[in-house]
Please model this.
Amino acid sequence: MKANANPKSALILTRLQKYFIQEKCPFYYIGDFVILDENCLEVHEPKHQRNSLDHFPNNLGFKGQLEVNSEVLLPQLISKIIICDITHLNFSAIRISYNSFIFLTASERLQELDLDEITVTSKNGEIVPYEDLLDHVPFLRHLKL
Model:
């Protein structure tokens, strides 16, 4: 594998074939409990840090719980993520795109989903019904509306 390979592609190759294992980790792990607020990204576990999203690299990876309280910074956060293994996803009174929802639930390990006053819209601005959202979370255990 090339030394300058795209981190996301390198991670996929690593999963497919043991000969593609890299010497250094292709992503920057930020923690198990992450909150996206109006002006910053706050990480609670393993160590507490609160910084502007610009201070984080473009190869983020996290698992566990993600709480999204800002619809403005969500696209910027998604553009920086290469590994997203979320088990608990909390939204709070925001409007997000359907593509963003699909990206955040792509790992299929989501067990708890909190859709508190959230509106998910398609590309043409139509509101996506809950039935379509639930098709992307087959292992869901808890749903809060």
